[in-house]
Structures are given as C-alpha cells and as structure tokens.
Amino acid sequence: MQTEPVPDGGRPGGPPVGDYLGCYGRVPFGGHAPRISYVSAPFGRRPAWSDPGRHLVQWAAPGTPRIPYPSERERLLLTGVVRGPVTPAWVHRLTHVLKEGRHAELARMPGALSGALVADHRVFLFRSATSEEALHYRRSRDLLRFSTDPADLLDGPGEFGREEVWRACRGDMVFVYPGIARVPPGTVVTLERGSATTAAYDPVTPLDLPPRTTMTEFAEAAWELVVEAARPYAGRGRTGILLSGGLDSAAVLAALVECGADAVAYHYATRDPLADESAYARAVCDHLGVPFVPVPTDHGAGYLDERWQFPHPYNHLAYRWLEQMAERVAQDGITFLAWGREGDRIFGPARYGLHDVLTGDLPAREKATLCRGLLTSRWELPRILRSASPRTSLLDDLVPAGGAVRPADFLTPLPGAPADVFDTAHAPQEHCANLTVWRPRGIQLCNPLGSKGLRSLAARLPHAYRLLPHQGRLITKPVLRLMLSGRFPDAVWRRHGRLWLGSPHKDYVLRHPHVFAGLLGRPDAHLVRLGVVDPERLAHVLAEPARLRLNAESLIGTAMTELFLRSDARRTPFGPRGRPACR
C-alpha cells in the first residue's frame, strides 16, 4: 500500500485492497460538533461507548493500516474492495471531491467505492454503480446512524413488517426493515441536521460501438472487458473462484488465467447425481491448468441450525453449503473469491421477439439469419408474428412472475401482497451471507462480470443478440458462447440444458419433514404467532410427498426466515444507560 495514487481517469497503480470489511457510525447533529471516537477493529467487534460523541468503527482485516485522517475533525470509512493504495493523497482527493460536490470526478475514481465521510456537520454516504456493498442508514433530526449491518440500526427486536416477512417466506427479495433506508448504487447521500439529499453520480451509459456491430464483434469486445475486469487480481497472490460448471464462472476463470493470475477453483460437490456439475467444472480446470478443489456439502442434520444469527432473512437454499465453502476458502488463506454473478443480466435474455430482430441495431444479414431461426423454433407462426409488437415477448411464458416462482401452500393467504420485482440494486441474500459467512473470515467476494465496462456493454447489447434460435433450439447467451468458443473445448462452451440443481434440497425436505414440523408447526413458532404460517395447511403439506416436493424451496426459505426471527428475538441492542450502543 505504498504506491502513488492514480490521476483522474487513470487506472489504479496497484492490486485490489480487500482489507475493508464494513463500517458503522453514530453521529449526533446540532450545536458544537462533539469529539470523534474512532476505532479500527476486526470484523464484528463493536466497542461500547458511554459518551454522546461521534462513534465510528472501521471493520478491517488484522494488521490493516488505519485509513489516513482527512483532517483532525473528519474521518473516512470504507467498505468492500478498493482499487489501489489508500494513501493520504488518495484520501485527500476523495474527501474534497465529496465535500465540493464534484460528482463527475468521483465517478472517474477507479474501483467500486463505498463508504462514509464524516465531517463536522455533514455526513456523506457514497456507493458507486458497481459496488455490491449494502450501506444502510437511519436518521432523526438530531441523530444519524449508518452501518453495513442493518441490525446495528435497530432499537429492539421486532422492527420488521409482517407483509415483508410473509413475502420473505414466499421467496421474494424484500428488505424487511421499513424504518431503515439504503444507499442506492451510483449515489451520494448527504445528511445534515433535518435534511437528506440524494444525488446520482455514476450512471451506466451504453458502450460506444459502431452502428450494426455484429454478434462476433460484441463477443470480442466482451472478452476484452472481462480480461480488463480480471487483470487487477493478477500478481496479488492466489485468487479463488467459485466454479459452478456453468459458462459465467468459466468465463471469469479463463480471464483470470489470461491475465496470469494465480487462481484456484472451488466447487460445491454434491453426492446427488441429478445435480452433479463436477464433470463440467473439472473439464474447465483441466483445460486451463487450474487446481480444482471440490468442497463436500452437507445433506443431513447440519443443513439447518438453530444457532445461526442473521441480520436479515437468508430465504434461499443451502446456507450451510456457504459455511462449508467459506471454511475451506479461509483455511487456504484466500482473501479474494471471484464468482460468475451477473452473467445472466449481462448476456442473457430479458425479452425476445420479432420486433427485437427487425428493429435491432444489427446487420441485415444477421436479421435474416435470426428470422430463419425463428421459423425453425418451437413457437407457432401466429405467435411469432404477434411478437412484432414491442409489447409482446416470446419469453413471456418462460419467465414466472411474482409469487408463482415458489408455491407456498402452507402460508396464510395474504391478499394484495405485491409480486416480487427483480431489483438489481438489492441482493439481501448476498448481503446477509457477506455479514455472516464471508466477512467474518476475511473473504471478499469479487464480481468481474459486474464491472462498469460490462454493464455498459449490456446497455448496448441488442435484445436480438441475447438469444439465438437455431435449428429448433434456443441457444442462450450466444455472445458469451462465441466469446468462449476459441478458448474452451466444444463440450464446455456448447453445453446445453441444465441439471436438476434443486434435487439435493428437495431430497432433504422429503427426508426431514419432522424438522420443518418442529421449526414451523409449533404454536410458539414466531411465524405461527405472526399469522404467517398456517399450522393446519403446513401439516397437510408435510404429510404428502408430492406437496412436499412442490413446496420444498419455499419450506426451506420459510425455515430460514423463522431462524432469522429467532435470532432477532435474541438481539440485545441497548448499551449502558439505555442508549443504542456500538456493540
């Protein structure tokens, strides 16, 4: 961390810095600005203060140098992966950019910046467009609290909405604390006494490419951008990657190898043959010459654990698998763990139809090829012709909406509950896992496919290039496949179809109905007392294997939500003299 800072618009001069694991602040407003109590502490450590001053905690890896003070009465806190060294000059520049509102310059600073600047009478909370950090705040006229952990901002247990809890059980990606605000990506929130101002500063604009760029040219541009996003991890020690066996993580690993990174691939290993992707993942590693580490996953009694402590419902599958992976990754001394998240959003289809082909910005010969492909597809000609309207997509019947995603026959009906809407700025499962699994072990998840350059490419990529109807088949992510076609054997990049990845989880539910009866069916269960779970409906579901299988995912998500409520009930938020303390 001794190299010089980067000039405006330049590239960072050093490798990524992964020492900043989160931050917390309690800042009173009004009158003379009180003294600052600032601590740089290991992740999760919350010193208790009795004085009424400004309390700030920077969670950092052991041995991390303290972030230089902008001034005697100002402090900067960071969270997530920082590109380049955190020097006094770098801190000085970031501080002045924020205080002077030079948002265009802030957007040019490299990396996925996220954190807080605490000045005398103002606090700036900032988060770049590519930052995946969750930064929350809660304010009254005279007091601001902010944290990467929403549980720090609670005044007691039970500060959630019943509808939000019901939706979490259904599987929605919903934030359950209505009294807590979040900093959206690409914004700066400026907080003063009695006021809060949000300014967008980091827009994602379409990549500047010539008109009628071909699919092959998009693939070439995509490869350059993936390599650019992976390059900082070369030469900084061993980098891990979560390798599923799919194309997204394979592309990230190929880019890391192209850059000369010392990479090792970790794979969730399952004993269920219906969900076993290890052959694909191993083929990728063998071709690239990368070590392959299968991590056995728990399919039995350890799958659910009442001792878990959650800041937010992790209403997804296989939390225990994350723990097992994190234990192995930490054992190997890995700080940065890459994965293929965002591949679907960057390269995959959201809609597709004749309108997208005919009006898309693509060469005439490719339009003709795609039209011929549509005529050989499974869609009937009248339906293809109807898709000439921009309001109609041929994928409408393939993308389930709202509550249709997960049947939940055991929940008490909640008329009027809104459908789940996919929000790219809100990933509660990933944030929860960060706080409880990865950061406590000093591991930073890295998302090269979520880079600013690739998001700009996605904004420019025509819908017609996100799906390829060819000889009766629908080929997803054709640009990604073209990008990998010269870099992997055919068996890898031509892979078509998916395994039954939910099989191990459904099998667990079928074998352990008594676990769900004990967690969710008792009168003292939190979800029963809230009127979210109907015990009679639950008993019917648990008694019939067919309904168990149908409701398996929502049963697991609901069980995880019940465990969240139990951990919430154990929360002790009050410090000395009844004030919320930085615990």
TrEMBL record:
SUPFAM superfamilies: Adenine nucleotide alpha hydrolases-like, N-terminal nucleophile aminohydrolases (Ntn hydrolases). InterPro entries: Asn_synthase, Ntn_hydrolases_N, Rossmann-like_a/b/a_fold. It holds the Pfam family Asn_synthase. The lineage of its organism: Bacteria, Bacillati, Actinomycetota, Actinomycetes, Kitasatosporales. Residues 237-351 form the Asparagine synthetase domain. This is Asparagine synthase-related protein.
